[in-house]
Write a structure and sequence with these properties.
By secondary structure, this protein is an alpha+beta fold. It is built from 24 helices and 21 strands. The strands form 6 sheets. Strands 12-11-13-10-7-21 form a 6-stranded mixed sheet, covered by helices on one side. Strands 8, 9, 14, 15 and 20 form a 5-stranded antiparallel sheet that branches. Helix 16 crosses helix 18. The radius of gyration is 32 Å and the shape is globular.
């Protein structure tokens, strides 16, 4: 009387289904012997060996619709629906077996043998095949998934040997591709290895937390690599970047990295796996750098090789290079290496002023009678140029520039710009730490032996984490101001605009590779080249080749678009570095979602460029919003790229048809939000509506700051400021340098 079937008491089961005991048990089974063991509950369904009229299959899968009534029964509180009753009727019409009869029909010996074969022969065979497929995908450069879910699952069940086989396979791919100097394949394989090790770390942590029944304390001591191991990893990865070694040496370096990685993994702790994953990712970044710069000694690693030397600027005169910010309209992420050279990229970008000013600049001067190099980065108020914060570094010896790869160190952007311009060779930085920089300064700045100093200052009027490409565009400004100051005329009448653009675009890419921050080419193209551009990169072209084609707007369309552009600073912290890491790991694996999304980004950037040329401002707004959806998909669920306040604001303004569309600028996570207002609306109107007419928005929305934004037809501008117009102090600054 207490029996249950499918979660229901027996009497209630019979009541709801209309079934009787005779439907479940033969009459020969006494009532006291009627159990689930001998109840005829399990229908026999035919596979697709029967005729078309009799088949119980849909395609090649068994049709289990005759069991759907069970699900409906469990969810229903009353009688079954007509659909469920039909399923029940099909179930009654089928021959059915009890568990006891199924057991009697089975052959225990054969079943055991089948399971043994499955465990020891069939499953390993399938796994070997999947590993072989991954190898083919990598070596053939196919945009297909490289997934190791079965390896991660196996490790969680204590089958570590599958993990080691996967690493060995990836190591073999790296060596084979390196022998053919296919650095893009080597880089992808290192990144896949990093992602696999990271997944294992997540699995270990998940199992550990489950065993403990709680999360481990955040403050628990974390293991770190020993100084000697760090040194070995760093020296191997740095040498891997060098253009002066042959492929045999590169293979030896890779094998050294494999050995170091395995030594770290032998610790078997979560932290060990995290550390090993991080080093494999750094190795992948080194290969990305080679793909961007090329491997030849005459590669563009020193970007001055194609420029003619002219006279330096007069001493003590500031050379000021300024540039607008940038707004990505569509196609972003496709510009990010290795995506940009694996698949090919296309991004529609516009240069823009903020509150009527070009927000980024760099100034450089040669100081007569001075010594050493002074570097400074500063943030200033956009309205009056008031200094908010600054950071300064004085360099007198080689050691002072040797930390250029550390993004957390002071003024590294400026240091990398000097290295890109050939100030000193990368090869002399290690082992010569106490050597004076003065001879290099004198040679770099002039042809005489007289001591001079060099001062370089970068300035941003944008808030930190704006998303408007500030660091990359600043990189271009720094390159331009230094080059023009010391006598490399990058805007010469003897070079074409395209050659000048290429110098800056590639130079900034090189800076970001030296910084190990990664990043693509859309920022520098967006700000250093004026107007609206469709920028593209070619797949499988090494060194990376990028072109930008300006799209002309009718002046009346441009004026109308400027009125309708709305810029709001969210004040939210940006997560670009974390998001970048996640995206590049997913790209290395080529998950179907991310490959399809990259394809959509490239296609839609080209479509958006046509809409822009046609003067369709509403289409630009719609493009921005659909682009924002693709950017969120690129970052992945739970990435945090869309703050709640931003989601609330976009939803409310779209619902009230106050805007056509909008997107967070850049990778997302915070920074500036750009929108296209509906016809007749301006930034002042949208600000008023948000503050006075829309209620129930997230509280952070009311802390947004609102700004005017306009397309800037001029990109990089260089001006020489006569020393007579300044005080001669390092603190010289005039806000009109940003006009």
């Amino acid at each position: 009387k207490n029996s249950m079937i499918y979660g229901l008491e027996l009497n209630l089961f019979f009541q709801r289904t209309g079934l009787t005991k005779n439907d479940l048990w033969d009459v020969s089974v006494p009532g006291m012997k009627q159990t689930l063991w001998n109840a005829k509950l399990h229908p026999v369904v035919q596979h697709n060996t029967c005729s078309a009229d009799e088949t119980m299959t849909v395609g090649n899968e068994i049709d289990l619709s005759s069991l759907s009534w069970i699900t409906k029964l469990c969810k229903s509180s009353g009688s079954l629906s007509d659909e469920a009753l039909k399923s029940l009727g099909d179930w009654k019409a089928l021959p059915r077996l009890s568990l006891s009869s199924i057991r009697a029909l089975s052959n225990a010996k054969e079943e055991f043998k089948f399971r043994e074969d499955l465990t020891h022969s069939l499953v390993p065979s399938v796994r070997r095949k999947r590993l072989s497929e991954v190898k083919e995908i990598l070596l053939q450069q196919r945009h297909e998934p490289c997934m190791f879910d079965f390896v991660v699952d196996g490790y969680a069940r204590g089958q570590a040997e599958e993990f080691h086989r996967a690493l060995i396979l990836l190591d073999k791919v790296i060596v084979e591709a390196m022998n053919d100097e296919l650095y893009n394949i080597v880089g992808r394989s290192f990144m896949v290895s990093s992602a696999l090790i990271s997944d294992i770390a997540d699995s270990i942590k998940s199992l550990s937390n489950k065993d403990l029944g709680e999360e481990k304390e955040e403050g628990a001591p974390q293991r770190s690599l020993s100084p000697s191991t760090v040194t070995e990893f760093r020296s191997s990865i740095n040498e891997l970047r060098s253009t002066s070694i042959d492929k045999k040496r590169r293979i030896l370096l890779c094998q050294r990295l494999f050995k170091l990685r395995n030594e770290v993994l032998s610790g078997k702790e979560v932290t060990d796996f995290r550390l090993a994953s991080e080093q494999m990712e750094l190795a992948a970044a080194a290969l990305t750098e080679l793909c961007i710069t090329g491997n030849d000694d005459n590669s563009k690693r020193c970007i001055l090789h194609s420029l003619q030397r002219t006279k330096p600027a007069l001493r003590d005169n500031w050379v000021v290079a300024s540039a607008p910010g940038r707004i990505d309209v569509d196609g972003g992420w496709s510009d990010t290496p290795p995506i940009s050279y694996d698949y090919g990229g296309a991004v529609l970008i516009m240069a823009c002023t903020v509150d009527g000013r070009r927000p980024l600049s760099s100034r450089c001067r040669i100081v007569s009678g001075g010594k050493g190099v002074v570097l400074r980065t500063e943030a200033r108020e956009s309205k009056d140029g008031k200094l908010i914060s600054d950071s300064e570094v004085k360099m007198n010896k080689i050691r002072d520039i040797a930390d250029f790869r550390d993004p957390s160190a002071a003024c590294t952007l400026l240091k990398c710009a000097l290295l890109c311009l050939g100030f000193v060779s990368l090869d002399i930085l290690h082992g010569n730490e106490d050597v004076s920089l003065q001879p290099y300064i004198n040679s770099f700045c002039s042809d005489s032996d007289e001591d001079v100093g060099l001062e370089i200052i970068s300035t941003s009027l944008l808030p930190r984490g704006s998303g408007m490409g500030g660091s990359s565009i600043l990189g271009g400004c720094v390159l331009a101001s230094i080059a023009q100051c010391v006598g490399f005329d990058i805007l010469s009448d003897t070079t074409t605009d395209e050659e000048d653009d290429e110098f800056l675009i590639h130079g900034v890419l090189m800076i970001e590779q030296l910084l190990t921050t990664g990043g693509g080419w859309q920022d520098q193209i967006g700000g250093l080249i004026g107007g609206i551009k469709l920028a593209t990169s070619v797949a499988h072209k090494f060194p990376l080749e990028v072109k930008a084609e300006r799209r002309r707007l009718d002046p009346r369309v441009r004026a109308s678009l400027n009125k309708r552009l709305v810029l709001a600073f969210s004040g939210q912290p940006r997560l670009a570095k974390t998001v970048l890491q996640h995206v590049l790991r997913r790209w290395a694996r080529r998950t179907p979602e991310i490959v399809a999304n990259v394809e959509d980004l490239v296609i839609n950037a080209t479509k958006a460029a046509k809409a822009t040329e046609n003067g369709d401002i509403d289409a630009i707004g719609r493009t921005m919003y659909s682009y924002w959806l693709r950017k969120k998909k690129m970052a992945g669920e739970d990435s945090g790229v869309e703050p709640i306040a931003v989601a609330d604001l976009l939803k409310a303004l779209l619902a009230q048809k106050e805007i056509i569309g909008g997107t967070l600028i850049g990778a997302g996570g915070g920074g500036f939000l750009v929108m296209v207002a509906s016809e007749g609306r301006t930034v002042a109107d949208i600000e008023r509506i948000v503050k006075n007419e829309i209620t129930d928005l997230h509280e952070d929305v009311y802390n947004f700051t609102w700004h005017e934004c306009a397309i800037c037809e001029d990109g990089l501008k260089i001006n020489v400021i006569d020393k007579a117009l300044t005080s001669g102090s390092l603190d010289d600054f005039q806000i009109n340098w940003h006009d």
